[in-house]
Amino acid sequence: MTVTRLGKGIGAIIPEFPQGIDLTNQIAEIEVEKVRSNPLQPRKEFNLQAMEELKQSIRENGIIQPVTVRQVEDGFELIAGERRLRASVELGRQSIPAYVIPVSSDVEMMELALIENLQRENLNPVEEAEAYQMLTETFSLSHEDIAQKVGKERSTITNSLRLLALPDEILRDLKDQKLSAGHARPMITITNKEQQLNLWRKIKRDALSVRATEALVKNIAGSPEKKPIPSKQHPVKIYKTVEDRLMHITGSRVRIKGKEKGVIEIEFYSKEDLGRLLELFEIIEDQAQ
């Protein structure tokens, strides 16, 4: 491994390390070609103008803040600093300052990358939600576990994940920062996709504030579109219609058992999912009062 000095920026204070030394918990100048990107990087969107500004800054001042990496058998794996690494590659730089830390597992890699991005406010709302989703689905962390690791409330994690159920058009605007998370969160309580899209169009057309959006959602939720259930249908068909409607409302599988009297079963898939259902029923209760 070649260790050089930048002569600019943080390179002026980085010590030189002989080849082959264990660099764990050290800041070192390492070869760019020895660093591979983090496959668990939560950040997916890279604004071209911001990247050009970063490259110009690096040309003039060098890299002020080191990237964070872990040492692997054939070099280093990036934990945080994807933009700085990409800019260095595009500028043809041979080396980059890096803080080398011990990381024992992929889940720890994901956690560190997510926390670093959240602390620097680098993630858009969709990237943040997708990172939480990876922690829950790939690494089986509960919403409570994630909340403790990133220093947020459990409900914040749950509501962030619920954003991913919004239509693709709305998610695209969230990614491009053409729509704020404050505008998008109230849409979660609307179960009809077309109503969500109509509201999204109105927000853009009329430049609605977050407060105005919240008020509009309350009006929409207070007068839901109802499809009549034909009373002359066979009971099995009626139950199927009701099951479909309840599944649409709850986002969970629903079964109706019985004839004149019976039981409604609503499935849940984790403690967090049960909490989501409880929040949904509390919203319904509040609207009924």
Topology summary:
Elements: E1 26-31, E2 35-36, H1 48-61, E3 67-72, E4 75-80, H2 82-90, E5 95-100, H3 106-119, H4 125-137, H5 143-150, H6 154-162, H7 168-175, H8 181-184, H9 193-206, H10 210-222, H11 235-250, E6 254-258, E7 262-266, H12 271-288
Parallel strand pairs: 2-4, 3-5
Antiparallel strand pairs: 1-5, 3-4, 6-7
Give the ordered list of helices and strands: EEHEEHEHHHHHHHHHEEH
For the record, give the distance between the C-alpha atoms at the N and C termini, rounded to a whole number.
69 Å
Major sheet attributes: 5 strands, mixed
Rounded mean pLDDT score? 76
Oligomer designation: single chain
Indicate the percent of residues in helices.
40-55%
What is the overall number of helices? Answer: 12
Please state the second-level CATH architecture of the domain at 9-104: Alpha-Beta Complex
Strand content: 5-15%
Number of strands: 7
Shape: elongated
Structural class label: alpha/beta
Q: Which stretches are poorly predicted, pLDDT < 50 over at least 5 residues?
A: 1-23
The CATH topology annotation of the domain at 9-104 reads as Conserved hypothetical protein from pyrococcus furiosus pfu- 392566-001, ParB domain
The CATH superfamily of the domain at 9-104 turns out to be: Conserved hypothetical protein from pyrococcus furiosus pfu- 392566-001, ParB domain
Radius of gyration: 25 Å
CATH class descriptor name of the domain at 9-104? Alpha Beta
Strand order of the largest sheet: 1-5-3-4-2
